[in-house]
Amino acid sequence: MVTEIYDLGIVKDEQLKFAVIVSKFDDKFVYAKHKKRDTWEIPGGHRELNEEINLTAERELKEETGAINFKITPVCDYSVKREGQDKDYGRVYYAQIEELGELPDFEIGEIGLFDYLPEKLTYPEIQPIILKWVMKYRAEDEWFTIEKIDNETYAISEYGHWEKVHSYLLIGKNKALLIDTGLGIGNIRNEVEKLTNLPIIVITTHVHWDHIGGHCLFDTIYVYKNEVDWLRNGIGIPINVIKKNIMEKPFNKKLPIEFNIDNYKIYRGEPKRILNDNDIIDIGQRKLRIIHTPGHSPGHICIFEEERGYLYTGDLIYRGTLYAFYPTTDPVLFKKSVDKISELKGIARLLPAHNDINISITLMYDIKKAFKDIEDKNMLKQGSGIFDFDEFRIKI
Ligand SMILES: [Zn+2]
Question: In what helix (H) or strand (E) does residue 331 lie, and over which residues does it extend?
Fold first, then answer.
């Protein structure tokens, strides 16, 4: 028996005779056991006469698992060639089941939830191949990109969105620290839990929607004192403006299956700790210093880990356009903040909250100089416009 996989669009629709649906519920794979068998199979079945293949998939998923609420998406097509027979073609789907009801009284006697593949399979020559393909598709499709900075430090990036936001996970001896929680498009907590079991503290570089998107998934939130009010009561930007911002440019990646812009909300909540300038956060053999760097926002902070020389710069330093043009920003303070961090001794690496993650330390000094030039021209005030430099622009 030979199983082959095809990208969508190669196999003709009329050739497709089956739909199989790799499904997940509660982060486990869902398998079905036929009443007359004692082996497990991926839910799926025959396409009925004149039935649209997508409807076959939905019908089979409901019949074989009892799924009530789910999101389903086609992944690829496959063929199985048995000796002496023609190829049989089918389409593979991935479904995220949100609600399981009672199993309808058809052919399936039981469903089972497994981390990967059960041992006893009905089609051991087909199912592992299909599952592997779906996993590969899902990995390429993962909303978050995880990059190892060192053994205990990770960047969790969202390259699928035009803002290219980075959050950072720092693993200490007894706690983990998450610097910002991203856009709130994918579930960042799931990513964090793949990397650590430790209790998690979330530190907010500033209370802008693109850095607090996943705050709702965590209990322990720290924020700088000047933005406590924004965290509690919101920043005052209408939700439809923020939604427009999220959807402004096309996504470079497929959106997570669970994402729905209609349900997008901005986090509001009570911080567990209110931060001050020079506070030290100790997560066990790792100490982080809070550096108040207002300008982009009133309570913006950079976080400095002296021992490793890491400076997490938030929206103060990155490659791209730096923003100090809207009412709650302050170009004069922005400049002062850049000056302030330029004085720090022992910076080995800058870790920005946007765009290119590999930036050189000289970028910070270039930005410092740029602000000085703007100030010297007496233009360091809001409404002066956009100033273009090599690697960055300043909009004030
Ligand atoms: Zn930002």
Answer: helix 331-342
